[in-house]
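RESIDUES AND SHAPES:
===
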Amino acid sequence: MALRFNYVVVLVLLLSENWMEYGISQDDIDLTKGASFIFGDSLVDAGNNNYLQTLSKADITPNGIDFKASDGNPTGRFTNGRTIGDIVGEELGEPGYALPFLAPNTTGSAILYGVNYASGGGGILNATGSIFVNRLSMDIQVDYFNITRKEIDKVLGASEAREYLQKKSIFSITIGSNDFLNNYLLPVISMGARISQNPDAFVDDMINHLRTQLTRIYELDGRKFIVGNVGPIGCIPYQKTINQLSENECVSLPNKLAQQYNAKLKDLLQQLNENLPGSTFLYANVYDLVMELITNYAKYGFTTASKACCGNGGQYAGVIPCGPTSSLCSDRDKHVFWDPYHPSEAANLIIAKQLLDGDQRYISPINLRQLRDL
């Protein structure tokens, strides 16, 4: 009976939302593995949009068909398997995937292993993604991290929490694509903005907002950052399909806007590295990395970098998002793109590998594994 009673007590303690309340010291929580705090859009959303009334959802089959942790069931990830954030966390030895902030089990000690705030349709600017009705903008995501930050203090105590966040945590930001695709470039909806703001002014607005957002995270004890630039959004199956392009063509305006933003983002991160003591901001050159995959896809074992594996409509299955009635390819690891907008897990693996161990073509001033060991 005593053994059974002890087992129940331990189980209750493990399930407690706040281990410190029950006299368990922080030494009983393995803090050596570190954590990822992930901000961004559908490229790294791990299920936050499942808890929103939104048109931007991936909680339907066949999304997640290759996600082993869910036995192939959809989790809200906008791909067939793991996101780049998932893969990076695994490779860095983190004990589990960062949980979606809005999920009911993201409480207590669970937050020490990372939290994901990313939201499909979200952008740097608050107006971005309004076409989807609901989504979490970057401002809201940072507000949510502020809530998490206070909870970490409760679990670890103020001093240990600060040390954990500054030394053992990586802050990952993957955002900006929607500010172009679902804001500035949207017909009708964006007409006012495009009349009142030229591309330079719009990009400057994005950079100024992002500067404030990253500085807020720094003020909440973030020190190790990786910030992805905007990929070649003119090359996604959706853009190729609606513009009726050939396989080796991309739409020039979205790519030009992305490159304009990327140049200013690189400058911003350099300024933050110089002006925020103790910080390290990595610049992830996702644009060139994805363009390399698209241009030389056969070299990486892919058979197409134009056609979506899951989708419907047009030459590249690029009009209708992935869902139960979509056409589905049988060779998912041979497609760079899973759906009209998002990379496949096979592409995510290649991208993640370069961010983890690559050279300054794709990640600078150091790579992610070096950042973890700082």
The CA atoms of residues 110 and 188 lie 43 Å apart. The beta strands are 35-40, 99-100, 115-116, 169-174, 224-228, 280-284, 310-311, 327-328, 363-364.
